[in-house]
Design a protein that fits this description.
The chain has 280 residues and is α/β, with parallel strands linked by helices. The chain folds into three domains: 54 residues, Orthogonal Bundle (Arc Repressor Mutant, subunit A), CATH 1.10.10; 103 residues, 3-Layer(aba) Sandwich (D-Maltodextrin-Binding Protein, domain 2); 102 residues, D-Maltodextrin-Binding Protein, domain 2, CATH 3.40.190.10. It has seven helices and twelve strands. The strands form three sheets. Strands 4-3-5-12-6 form a five-stranded mixed beta sheet. It is elongated.
Length: 280
């Protein structure tokens, strides 16, 4: 901003005097907004963005707003990335930064607008909404087994590929069918679902994964569902998460509207139920 810290502090004091209330408070060596400060920010955030954009436009500079999204590596590589060009084309004034990690955002510290977060959806104090209902299916490369050619208990004769952080594991799949999970030939474990999906594509065994993550691989025939009557195991594992105050940011609202429509279209194509419904 080309302004010294003391000058900023002076401007804040003047603003507090004009408004008649404290806007910031010191907590140790850090400062944070008071409740009045948060309220004031909510009221002026969109107007400040508009003024900034208008100023840059008058100066002849590129008018752009940065949207920072933190998402799991699997969602970003297997679902979001292929759809992102449509968002960029429809919103040329928004620059996107995609931060691929499984670590949840500390919104009090990190400069992130929103998360696409893996988990159960229980994060108190934040705006949380489901991305989509996912169907968990056993899959393999077509040269290992033909589509719908196996009984469920025959799956145990293959190497079991696991994503260790997945919410649906092989034990739960076997239990759902009333089968014991003994007699497993061997296992291959990963800490990322996209790696498990890619291992299945390479013919390394049988994976149990979400069709949200492997939809394109199924569509293109790199993966098949070898079980004749796979159980209907529906669960939501990916969530849109941000502070309630971030929903006042126009760039965040624009992205939420877009991704909701994309997820609804994907669900309709795949015959899924309403987002958030659990059948397990």
């Amino acid at each position: 901003m080309c302004v010294t810290p003391s000058a900023v502090s002076q401007q804040i004091r003047l603003l507090e005097e004009q408004i008649g209330t404290a806007l910031i408070v010191r907590v140790g060596r850090r400062i944070k907004l008071t409740e009045d400060g948060e309220r004031y920010f909510e009221l002026i955030a969109d107007q400040v963005e508009t003024i900034t954009a208008a100023t840059r436009q008058m100066q002849g500079a590129k008018t752009a707003t940065r949207l920072t999204i933190r998402t799991t590596p699997t969602v970003s590589t297997k679902w979001l990335l292929s759809r992102l060009p449509q968002f960029l084309q429809a919103n040329p004034d928004i620059d996107v930064r995609l931060d691929g990690t499984n670590e949840p955002t500390d919104f009090n510290r990190d400069h992130v607008d929103l998360d696409i977060r893996h988990g159960t959806g229980r994060w108190p104090g934040l705006h949380v909404e489901p991305l989509a209902v996912e169907r968990f299916l056993p899959v393999c490369a077509p040269h290992l087994a033909a589509p719908f050619s196996l009984d469920p208990d025959q799956v145990r004769g293959f190497r079991m590929i696991r994503s260790v952080k997945a919410q649906v594991q092989w034990e739960k799949w076997f239990a759902y069918l009333g089968l014991k999970d003994d007699g497993i030939k061997s296992q291959l474990l990963f800490d990322r679902s996209h790696m498990a999906v890619d291992a299945a594509v390479l013919g390394m065994g049988m994976a149990l994964e979400s069709d949200l993550m492997m939809g394109q691989d199924l569509k293109d025939g790199r993966l098949v569902v070898p079980v004749r009557t796979p159980p209907e195991m529906l669960v939501t594992t990916q969530w849109l998460v941000c502070p309630h105050t971030h929903m006042r940011r126009s760039r965040v609202r624009t992205f939420f509207d877009w991704i909701r429509a994309e997820a609804a279209h994907w669900q309709a194509e795949n015959g899924h139920s309403v987002a958030g419904e659990q059948s397990m």
